Amino acid sequence: GAVTHVHVRVTPLGDELAFAVANDNTEMRAVEQARREFATNVSHELKTPVGALSLLAETIEEGADDPEMVRQFARKIRKESRRLTKLIQEIIEISRLQGDDTVRDHQPVHLTEVVAEAIDGARLGAEQRRIEVSSSVSAEPVTMGDRDLLVMAVRNLVDNAVAYSEEGGKVTVALAEDDGVAAISVIDHGIGIDQKDQERIFERFYRTDPARSRQTGGTGLGLSIVKHVALQHAGTVEVWSQPNVGSTFTLRLQAQEEGMTE
Ligand code: ADP
């Protein structure tokens, strides 16, 4: 059958209005509305893991004489706590990224190092799922920006590629440069994303399958962080995906002219 390749571009005029210049009442109200929605979502998202923790503790209380059950529930508590910690960290990160008073580093950043560090960070999670993450470097572009934020963005993409692949799968991170633009592509052959979901996945807390995201320790904030990091660097992030074929996320950033940072 016909194959459609969908390309979603997220630009400063994307789905969220937090970046809108509030120069008229309608826009100001929309920004206000987006803030309120975020606050509502955050409290909802926090209540879920806290409720789970409380329930797990209650169950242990009731069956405290069975040591095997206690151990099993303690493990679940630890897993839920990890997710809660990640959620809190990401909420703080996203509030920071959206604040207009963000002070960012603006240094030359070697993207080969960013890719290597992101892969390194994702290694443990990948090994647990027997997924091989490799890199394919055809250029060594340098961009201006915040190294830590860029590593976090690429790491989020690699973590997702691992989480949404079958066990034993392969993930590739490709680094290239074309016409002064650096491109980092994270390629997986996993479950893919339905066309109708592709433009929504960059929204905060949007997941195509909340149960699966929860199972993998996801928070629904990863891609929204990637988008904001891209925006702060005047870059873009794009997705190409097909269900059951795989996904490719590409982060594009301005590359420095050669020799400028030597
Ligand atoms: P999560 O923490 O749930 O992974 P993200 O913001 O990182 O949140 O991603 C949002 C949603 O986009 C995910 O819940 C998942 O449905 C989908 N998604 C992201 N990356 C991939 C991928 N590589 N393959 C398939 N689906 C993905």
UniProtKB/TrEMBL annotation:
UniProt keywords (A-Z) are: ATP-binding, Cell membrane, Kinase, Membrane, Nucleotide-binding, Phosphoprotein, Transferase, Transmembrane, Transmembrane helix, Two-component regulatory system
Q: What is its EC number?
A: 2.7.13.3
- One GO BP annotation of this record: cellular response to phosphate starvation
Residue ranges the record marks as coiled coil: none
Subcellular localization is given as:
Cell membrane
Molecular-function GO term, any one: phosphoprotein phosphatase activity
Q: Which GO terms describe its cellular component?
A: plasma membrane
Q: Is Kinase tagged as a keyword?
A: yes
Catalytic reaction(s) noted: ATP + protein L-histidine = ADP + protein N-phospho-L-histidine
**Chief location category:** membrane
Q: Where is the Histidine kinase domain?
A: 41-257
State the protein's name. Answer: Sensor-like histidine kinase SenX3
